[in-house]
Amino acid sequence: MMKSGMNLTLLALAALPLVSTWAQDPHAGHGGGPAPADARDPHAYSGGFTLDEGPYALPGPRQLRLADEHLFGGVLVDRLERVDAGAGHHWAYDTRAWIGRDYHRAVLKAEGDIEAGRLEESSTELLWSRALSSFWNTEFGVRYDTGHGPDQGWLALGVSGLAPYWFEVDATAYLGEQGQTALALEAEYELLLTQRLVLQPRVELSAYGKDDGARGQGRGLSELVAGARLRYEIDRQFAPYVGLEWAAALGNTADMVRAEGESTQEGRWVAGVRFWF
């Protein structure tokens, strides 16, 4: 016990010079204190040189630009396929194109069905997309539908992006003519079986705010489409695929389909290509 008390006393005596020094200059021993008289201004990091003046200036227009100052664009044909439902077949497409910068861009989405060489129905959206966070975008614009019943225009507002666990999600609310409202939700996931073989499950759900018999839109949940496509990426920009899909009409929409003497459920095989540039 006496030895322990003696050690503490020695440590206290050894620390006295350090405490005295710190009291006179709190920055002593920590690299602080006033800067030398000949120190360079820390804000003048370029030494007076700029992009336009000095020995390192490049001729012509400005040479260095940040990534979000460039204009980018792309086209993705996500689905271009033949759909075989047993009783017959048709062609379907789902594509999007965009142009803009990192935070703001214009987006064009188009999907539809072609039967007997004629456009049977289609949906086209022109949207303005703005980055909401690192993985999510907000989208606002217009949509125009043709095909089943009279043509219809919509205002669109939605979000799209990458959810946790790498699910790609697209959710959009619509306001149409005569106060009709709608909600569309799409989700898909890419499972890499190998470096080139990719399995892509996909689910699509739609709902409407009120009945519209002329267009086959029933109030509430309207249609569910679920399926999976297996593609082989010959390269990252071109991939043929095959798949199986199941579609079902729901709620009041199913009642309208039955009234027309048609089936409310349908299984179909698909085969097509996916490419982008």
From TrEMBL:
Keyword Disulfide bond: no
Any one GO molecular-function label of the UniProt entry: copper ion binding
Cellular component terms per the entry's GO annotation: cell outer membrane
Any Pfam family matching the protein: CopB
Protein name as catalogued: Copper resistance protein CopB
GO biological process: intracellular copper ion homeostasis
Kinase among keywords: no
Keywords, sorted A to Z: Signal
Residues in the signal sequence: 1-23
